[in-house]
Amino acid sequence: MQSTISNFSAQILVTICLTTITVPVLRAEPHCPGNIASVTPRFVQRALIVIPVKINQKGPFDFMVDTGSQVTVIDPLLAAQLDLKALGTVGLISVTSYSSAFSTVVDTLEAGSHIIEKSSVFVHDLGQIQDADPRIRGVLGVNFLAHFNLLIDYDRKLLCLDESEAAGEKLHGERIPFMASQGQEAELSFAERMLQQLSRGFER
Fold this sequence. Notes:
Elements: H1 2-22, E1 38-39, E2 42-44, E3 48-55, E4 58-65, E5 72-74, H2 76-81, E6 88-93, E7 98-111, E8 114-123, H3 128-132, E9 136-140, H4 142-145, E10 149-153, E11 158-162, H5 190-203
Parallel strand pairs: 4-9, 5-8
Antiparallel strand pairs: 1-11, 2-3, 3-4, 3-7, 5-9, 6-7, 7-8, 10-11
């Protein structure tokens, strides 16, 4: 009788162990500090950060996030697809080249739940960026990003755009501000100052 009870107990123990092994481990989904809405990026060649962006409520289209670009740039095919009209010609200067592009203004530029109205964009061939990934249709620059606090978390694959201080209050460390020019043109929007500066440079 005692042997029967022992065998029965062993069967219960085995069943419990097997059940424990098959229970899935639940992990919390990564989220931005302060529980602000996140934008899910994808990474190209482990370096380029690409997020979905809507223009004039159309899209989304893949845009590379570039904090080193003062302006937002889209490729000519996308500009034609969206029927964007040229408002002027500007010069674009990079480390290695100088070229011309046409400028225009879009009604809305949207990343995640964040929308900027009447934003200047420049239409130009994306060259090596599209060589790395032909799906990229534009570059999201500082004239959009400077409206927000920006956090990029490579490890958890998060990009956070914060219009408040909700995220900043949860973080510690050095903050690097986006710098805008100062002086007599300070009352102009950042995009307008950039457009004027580029236009003057092109006219020379």
